[in-house]
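Components:
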Amino acid sequence: NAGVTQTPKFQVLKTGQSMTLQCAQDMNHEYMSWYRQDPGMGLRLIHYSVGAGITDQGEVPNGYNVSRSTTEDFPLRLLSAAPSQTSVYFCASSLAGGRSYNEQFFGPGTRLTVL
Amino acid sequence: AQRVTQPEKLLSVFKGAPVELKCNYSYSGSPELFWYVQYSRQRLQLLLRHISRESIKGFTADLNKGETSFHLKKPFAQEEDSAMYYCALLSGGYNKLIFGAGTRLAVHP
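Structure:
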């Protein structure tokens, strides 16, 4: 199993450009999520999905869109990149949550710089 | 408000010394807490969870509801313990986690 994969590993954008960060998992996990990691702030939840066709906002959703058309894929879209979106982005997946926590498996991360 | 605080950005110790990484939380209700670790060039991974009451790689963490703390401890640090450590709080359902800012542990020979 490849686990959670993310592409690209690195990306540099200019302000106003759009792009999609890709995330895929091959573990048949229902739950997928996107976090951003900033120095001194830890990881913050952007968006999450509990299954195909179902997404919801996390702590810092502004400026990001997501969709979940398949169980395997959960892309994160930046429609108009801003310097404040310079960060390291992590995708994670797990079996469905609910009343008990299921361990989340993280991808290797995408380092994004917006100039 | 739900919050996780890790007061130390960097903890530097010598090999064989005891280690305590501090974590305090704010949560109304019965919290579920975790420690995640990120070694250099590796992915973030779960180290331990308080409900398991287990010791992983010599690390333990006890939930203290009176002090709202979940400190991570190891009696004798090893160089391979050098990593970034994050304390995390389960926020409601659906596996949503609130992370602390992280503490970098550096173990020197």
